Amino acid sequence: MMTTLYSLSVIGIIASLMLIYRASAMSQNNKSGKYILGISVFTFLFSLFFKDGGLFGMLFSLGRDLPIIAISALIFNRAVRKTWTMILTGLVVYGVIHVLHFSIPSFFEDLFEFESTKTEESTTYNANSKLDTDAEILIDVKSGSSQSDIEKLLADFEVDIRTAFRKPKNLEASEIDDYLAIDVPAAQINSLPQIMSLLQNSDLVEGLELNEVLSATPIIESEQGTVNKSSINTNDPEVSKQWGLEVMQVASLYEWLAKQGKPSKRAKIAILDTGVEGEHEDLADNFSSTDSDYDRDKVGHGTHCAGIAGAVSGNGVGIASFAPNADFIELTSIKVLSDEGYGTQQGIIDGIIEAADGGADVISMSLGGMSTDESQRAYSEAIKYANKCGAIVVAAAGNSSDDTHYYSPANADGVIAVTAVSSDLKLANFSNYFDGSIKMGVAAPGVEIYATYPDNSYRYLSGTSMATPYVAGLLGMMKAFNPDLSTEEAYQILNETGVETPSKSASGKFIQPLAAVQKAIK
To answer: Known catalytic residues?
Structure first.
């Protein structure tokens, strides 16, 4: 606001000088011109002192504008004798001021960092972005600012401002409780870019993000998969359909676990998805409810992921998982996606906080989408909170044959991202890939994966959605033996013990359960 007022004061000084010189040339006494000059000079000094940029900004503005004012005064002293020359000169001077004040100053301000209120990251509104209609914007309020300050800033708009996320139990663990959500009414949605600009250029906001709509990563179905003779010593009748367990040599894992005795704890894996059919015949004994509303699944996606992460092994029905019995894994569900498979960034972050506060050791997210934001500040803060609460967060890389760097939450800080490979360990043709910007990424089986489905059924599905719970299940096994295992330590183990695939760094290392669990307890 002060920057605009300052620019207008410069125009006011020059316009008043033009009026005064014009009156003098006509032998008239122009009191109004002198009055305007006085007000403009006062406004010039006031806005110069309070505008953004500090001392260097003031010096830059004075060095630019005092010569303009002086040269304009000299020109007007000669040009105002004739009306047409006065008008032409005035237009030229105004054009010069407009260019210098509104078109090119950003180059110098960026060069010298004059704009002290500029946020670290900039989010650009894309009209094609699919946003939550109940809260389009998420903002991280700067320390010392408040919701009332934001309300005053946006007083000209009929927005609804409220706390963005559920209140975390540990307020010191993250800044996630500083976030506000802003709902822009449908009638004012065209003002969204203007609202975002006001927020980004204020000194009230640390960061701003669009509250984008995400989905369960697209399910690629298979009519039937490969059936092989299983080497795993279990009575689960459908285990021969689980090629991933064979390739990952889970038979050797079972043999080794039989000699180890009980682990330190039963690790809790939270499936953030479309819900989980908790009473499924192959899940119930490993499942505990966080909320009864989460224990249903009309889509099937969450139930399928839960079976991959921790189906009950050795119960004589269905499939098996990395855990040979109920001593290792406990599953729970946090429903963050609708019955149509869609959710919002706000809802997913709420789910991360809820899972972390509920004691989750691993948070598995087979969801995501392409993001228009340059950074994932809110996701990163939520994940940092989960990490400090003792949880490791895993997310699907995505199924768009694209760089994972552009897909959230897999690209957020602190996440272990997962690509999908087929039985020959080649990167699946649909899987996103790693192109060097993802810090922690691994690969797991993700093609023709047979697992639990609603109504006590089973189905083959493909996707990075299916690869992700394999990694979550393995991390749960590792945390069962080493509860204090951090995300960084866990990823280092997965990377060191993993096998390189034909796709090499594009897929990340292919997980090796036995070696990873052994290394986790040393």
So the answer is: 273, 301, 465
